[in-house]
UniProtKB/TrEMBL annotation:
Its EC number is 2.6.1.16. Homodimer. This is Glutamine--fructose-6-phosphate aminotransferase [isomerizing]. The keyword Transferase applies. The chain holds residues 241 to 607 of 607 of the full protein. Residues 43-182, 215-357 form the SIS domain. The gene is glmS.
Length: 367
């Protein structure tokens, strides 16, 4: 009923809008009220004894893992391997000593992810999961289960669970950096106060909904859409493409910007919309030069950046969307919002059912 959707047309819209509130809850759970440490449940994890991370998941949760790889490697200097559960389980990879195996799942019941977890038992030093459903199989079978506290997610395409997964994974990466002596108490406290700005930044991203809706209405007429991003924005490009195909049935693909010239550039013509995710960070100029290669071939570019980025690179754009300026590490969480809203409004424009896309299930509990 309309009531359950809190006045929104779809659960997906409600769940997108809920993100500032649920992330505030997740932050409060791990950070306490005014604290400047990250508290893990139970015995927690001692990252000083860990020398490698293996992350495994499916779907959107897999993209949360791909994003977290950048964080764990950058701030905690831990080598990270990320795999799709259905590949991992049958490849039967060797698990070296000092490996922490990390499983991310909204439902905690995805069959392939659970099988991958069971494969790691007795091989990995510890098994940690990041889950929304606290009583799930994956949570129960882990040494440590970290709740994401997103609340019930009804829309088949994951939204608030994704950004809550990202928030918990970022806190875990910061905690790992601290345990490993790479982040002093003061530096950790600074990162924590940056984390506390997430709800306000997400609200600022949500404030751009009208602009994003207009861009999405244009995208909804396309047959194919390409998403580009570099560094932490590459997984966000993958997530944007996944969301768009899942709920609007528009064929979408994502590439790391640097790979453009190794293939997808052959697809660019005046009919090809290209969504570029590029905050004004250290990689901005590189991504913009890839974007210019698209513009030179008359591709229709939607640039999602912050005001500083848009001021520098607005020539020839088809559409632009301004995100708030934010600390680098938080950018993936903020840029998830326009990725979700583009897909959602494209689906609404096409008249597809955003909450119950054809052929898809919320939780894939059989192989
Ligand atoms: C399905 C859902 C996705 C979800 C994936 C993994 O494909 O449609 O939204 O990301 O399963 O589910 P999990 O519950 O393990 O996160």
């Amino acid at each position: 009923t309309r009531m359950d959707k809190g006045g929104h047309k779809h659960f997906m819209a409600k769940e997108i809008a809920e993100q500032p509130a649920v992330i505030a809850q997740a932050l409060a759970h791990y950070l306490g009220e005014g604290g400047d440490t990250i508290t893990l449940p139970g015995a927690g994890v001692d990252f000083s004894a860990v020398n490698r991370l293996t992350m495994v998941a499916c779907g959107t949760a897999y993209y949360a893992c791909l994003t977290a790889k950048y964080w764990f490697e950058q701030v905690a200097r831990l080598p990270v391997e990320v795999d799709i559960a259905s590949e991992f389980r049958y490849r039967e990879p060797p698990i070296s000593e000092g490996t922490l195996a990390l499983f991310v799942s909204q439902s905690g019941e995805t069959a392939d992810t659970l099988a991958a977890l069971r494969y790691c038992k007795g091989k990995a030093d510890s098994i940690v999961s990041v889950v929304n459903v606290a009583e799930s199989s994956i949570a129960r079978e882990s040494d440590l289960a970290l709740p994401i506290l997103a609340g019930v997610e009804v829309g088949v395409a994951s939204t608030k669970a994704f950004t809550c997964q990202l928030s918990v994974l970022l806190m875990l990466a910061l905690r790992a950096a601290h345990d490993r002596g790479l982040l002093e108490d003061d530096a950790l406290a600074d990162q924590i106060s940056a984390l506390r700005s997430l709800p306000a930044l997400l609200n600022a991203a949500l404030d751009q909904e009208d602009t994003i809706r207009r861009a999405a209405q244009n995208l909804s007429e396309a047959r194919d859409v390409l998403f580009l991003g570099r560094g932490q924005m590459y997984p966000m490009a993958l997530e944007g493409a996944l969301k768009l195909k899942e709920i609007s049935y528009i064929h979408a693909e994502a590439y790391a910007s640097g790979e453009l010239k190794h293939g997808p550039i052959a697809l660019i013509d005046q009919n090809m919309p290209v969504v570029v995710l590029a905050p004004r960070d250290a990689l901005f100029d590189k991504t913009v030069s890839n974007m210019q290669e698209v513009l030179a071939r008359k591709g229709k570019v939607v640039l999602i950046s912050d005001q500083a980025g848009l001021d520098e690179a607005s020539d020839g754009l088809w559409q632009s969307v301004a995100m708030p300026a934010c600390p680098d590490l938080l950018a993936p969480i903020i840029y998830a919002v326009p990725a979700q809203l583009l897909a959602y409004h494209a689906a609404v424009a096409k008249g597809t059912d955003a909450d119950q896309p054809r052929n898809l299930a919320k939780s894939v509990t059989v192989e």
